[in-house]
Design a protein that fits this description.
There is one protein chain. This protein has seven helices and seven strands. By secondary structure, it is an alpha/beta fold. It has two domains: 42 residues; 132 residues, Rossmann fold (3-Layer(aba) Sandwich). The strands form two sheets. It has a five-stranded parallel beta sheet with strand order 3-2-1-4-5, sandwiched between helices. Strands 6-7 form a two-stranded antiparallel sheet.
Length: 186
Amino acid sequence: MVLMVLRILSWLALCALGAVVFPGFTLWWIVAAVAGSLLFYWLAPKPETLDWVVIDGSNVMHWFDETPSLNTVSQVAQHLIDLGYWPIVWFDANVGYKVGSRYMGEAALARHLPVSAKAIRVAPKGSPADPLLLAEAGRLRARVVSNDKFRDWTEEFPQLHDESFLIRAKVHATGLTMEIKPAGQV
């Protein structure tokens, strides 16, 4: 709703400029602005209709040769995007020290992944990402990509008992092996 209001205001500002340049068309500029904003809002995908998947980045980054690499996470995320999913990637706060020599936040990680910084989460220092990513997956009704069994969290997150909740995979020299159907066919 807030996004729609901001879009309408930006369109109205553009219309005000148009009205100054072309004074006889003021009403048409306003009608076009409101109609365009409402149409954009109506056609934009809603979060609850998207096929979300949450990637346990701190687990996935170790999948190739057990060496932490953002390339591995990137390969998995791109595969999911190609299948029509909307990935959100979670990392523990120490990800930057595992793949480099300094802290890395969402923006720095986004430079290495095929998702925007808005789709990347870094757990606060001292907090594990596991309960945070499991909670977000629950809110989004998403599945989780990880080879972790999350044994410490089964009581708090009963969805872990559902065999289809976790998507397991392997990354090897010849590519990625992941058993998952394209979005919309699950």
